[in-house]
């Protein structure tokens, strides 16, 4: 299977997984999100610090995400998985804010085969906690199956990471399963 085809399959899997995850978890209160998010400030390069395991990311890989605001108000998304051997896998797509969410909930649709899978009405990228200076963001899905901590720096201090782990736990995520960036 060539790299382009593999990337399309990965993007389709990611979209399907995120779409299926957007129903509220059983016996959990609604997932709280961050206050208003300025998508201009949110744009730029982010580094994954930790995540819950999922079927579309290699457990040993790390990820980078670049968000670029577009003139129509959407955000271009470029996710890059970096594997231990240095190989990279990239998926691109578009994020749009869910009306009434103050930009804290986004619908992300990836290009290629994944474009045929519609994004959930309530969004599949919820910004749960955002540092006031936009240096770190905790992102997840309302069913608590998917979770990422992103930061502007490649590495956060253990104390800072722990703040976000505690928030994720408080919000009902299974933090015992977190995969951390080396």
UniProtKB/TrEMBL annotation:
Q: Which CDD domains match?
A: lipocalin_Blc-like
**Superkingdom of the organism of origin:** Bacteria
Listed InterPro entries? Calycin (IPR012674), Lipocalin_ApoD (IPR022271), Lipocalin_Blc-like_dom (IPR047202), Lipocln_cytosolic_FA-bd_dom (IPR000566)
What Gene3D superfamilies does the record tag this protein with? 2.40.128.20
Would the keyword ATP-binding turn up in this protein's UniProt record? no
Signal peptide coordinates: 1-25
Could you tell me which residue ranges the Lipocalin/cytosolic fatty-acid binding domain spans?
37-180
Do the record's keywords include Signal?
yes
UniProt KW keywords: Signal
Q: Which residues form a coiled coil?
A: none
Q: Give the protein family.
A: Belongs to the calycin superfamily. Lipocalin family.
Give the protein name, as stated in the record.
Lipocalin family protein
Query: What phylogenetic lineage does the species belong to?
Result: Bacteria, Pseudomonadati, Verrucomicrobiota, Verrucomicrobiia, Verrucomicrobiales
